Amino acid sequence: MNYAGSFFGYRGPIIPVAVGGRVCLPFWEIEGRIPTRNITYSANALDNYPAMTIFPNREQSELIWVQTWDESLMFKLSADGVNYQDEEEVAPDKNLGAWFHRSSARGIAVKNQSAGSTARYQIVVFFV
């Protein structure tokens, strides 16, 4: 097969499809909205939640990818940049060590699941 011009995702090649005069990428298109920009945050998690990381201009995310490699971490999203939602866990031995969801958030905070451990993480926030 010739995959020239294809986009590759974790499940194999994703072939652009023309729909209604425009090109659609099934993996990235979510209800007609295609993320066009992203910001990446990388660091080591602390033992307690630090101050919330607010996204630039308090902009609302479309998709969020959280990945850890060596230790489990906990994170909380904030829809309004002030109040937190429920905690989520990401463990390196579950789901490829990643959490990837459509999430409307304006901020995030991350901490180690176990005090004294150091979870290296990367968070990619996608915007439309």
Quickly name the level 1 CATH class of the largest domain. Mainly Beta
In terms of per-residue confidence, which ranges show pLDDT below 50 for 5 or more consecutive residues?
1-14
> Which fold name is given in CATH as the topology of the largest domain?
Jelly Rolls
Q: Percentage of helical residues?
A: under 10%
Can you give me a brief rundown of this structure?
The chain is mostly beta strands and 128 residues long. The chain contains no helices and 12 strands.
Secondary structure: elements and pairs:
Elements: E1 7-9, E2 12-14, E3 17-19, E4 22-24, E5 37-44, E6 53-54, E7 63-68, E8 73-78, E9 87-90, E10 98-102, E11 107-112, E12 120-127
Antiparallel strand pairs: 1-2, 3-4, 5-12, 6-11, 7-10, 7-12, 8-9, 8-11
Q: What does this entry look like structurally?
A:
- With 128 residues, the protein is an all-beta fold.
- The protein folds into 2 domains: 30 residues, no CATH class; 93 residues, Sandwich (Jelly Rolls), CATH 2.60.120.10.
- It contains no helices and 12 strands.
- It has a 4-stranded antiparallel beta sheet with strand order 5-12-7-10, with no helix packed on it. Strands 6-11-8-9 form a 4-stranded antiparallel beta sheet, with no helix packed on it.
- Strand 8 and strand 9 form a beta hairpin.
- The two termini are 32 Å apart.
- 19% of the residues are buried.
- The N terminus is likely disordered.
